[in-house]
Amino acid sequence: TILEEAINYPDCPLMIKSILANIYKKNQDYGKAVRVWEKVYATGDSYQKEYALRQMEIIRNLMFQERAAEN
Asked: Were both Cys, which of 17, 34, 40, 57 would link to 52 (CB 3.0–4.6 Å)?
């Protein structure tokens, strides 16, 4: 998609990365969501880094709950 291509550009706004990460999360594509949040963390300011960390923790919890439900 266009958003997937856009996040590879160094000047891609963090808002675009965040939107894509949230789309992945909503679609339960947690691996891709975490990878995008990692990009936000790598390029963001302290607030954005903290937000990215929180989002990755939320996603990890969702992944854990999903796996627990399968068993």
From this structure: 40
Cα dihedral 45/20/30/47 (nearest 10): 20
CA-based nearest residue to 23, from 13, 11, 12, 32? 32
Q: CA torsion 26→53→50→48, rounded to 10°? A: -50
Q: Which residues have C-beta within 8 Å of that of residue 66, sequence separation ≥ 6? A: 28, 30
pTM above 0.85, yes or no: yes
